[in-house]
Amino acid sequence: MQNSSERYVVTDFRSIAHGLLNTLISAPEADLPTLLARALTPECSWDVSAPVERLTGPQAVLEGFLLPLRAALSHARRRDEIFIGSPNRRAEGGDWVASVTHYLGNFTAPLFGVRPSGHLAFLRAGEFYRVEGGRIAQARVILDLPDLMRQAGRFPLPFSYGLETLFPGPATHDGVLPAAGDGAASLDTVERMLGALHVFDPETFGSDAQTGRGGTWHEDMMWYGPAGIGSNYRWEGFVKDHRESFLRAFPDRRGGNHYCRIGDGNYAAVSGWPSMTMTFQDDYLGQKADGRALTLRVMDFYRCAEGRIMENWVLLDYTQLMAQMGVDLIARSNALDPPADAAR
């Protein structure tokens, strides 16, 4: 494990991966097999959120991920909001890049079973890639399919706890291949926060070292969550719109089982597959609690300033979480009446 006092030396593998991924989504389809052979290792593993799951090798990635995505979102493009990279601080090691991106295009064909809207869509995604010798050897991708269903007018959840909105980019507009800041220090700040977060007051849902003097969160923190949770502002908004309902439902949750933690400039990113284990002890998003054991895949992206967290983007595989509860969000969404303009 890398000593947290060591400063990361960021090499060009970030730029290489950034160029590869943007090329793969927009290149002519006939060029994709050759491009994938150059961009991915022959034995690459590509784990995607439900219902896609594990893909192995370039051909499987082409057929199981890239071609369906490009077919569903016509003239698809990436719009990266964050793209960072560094050596992995966790014991697994390796050089990793991580991104918050939107895949955008006109949603004209089904995607992994989700019915299209016929309109422009922004499919948000969190992504982690391990890079070896300029090629991608391992990938973890969470697609916020419930939000895509919401954009299509067929939201499969009964409500959302916070504001449902497009993920904004960082307030500083410097999240893609950052050139300034201390990545190790940013990750130190995030790890200090994570170390205290697992213990909480059941009355206030607060945790030590989070806010106030010596806290890791800025008073004006922004938290951007997936469909069903939504986004919120300041710690009190985070507690009201996410933390309280989540901890009531899963009070024994244990997180931090991360395969990757990286820091780059004023940014840091962590992910577990799964990260959390928990039991379902109170109703959540309209689903009745039944005590069953659950796991949750998690990706967190942070922007830090002056030793505090300013913004946090969160991708959670809620399609898979709800499936563990016995709910097929895609089938539920598809059963809803189409938007009024869909028949035109």
UniProtKB/TrEMBL annotation:
Alphabetical list of Pfam families matching this protein: SnoaL (PF07366)
Any one of the GO BP annotations: polyketide metabolic process
Name of the protein in its database record: SnoaL-like polyketide cyclase
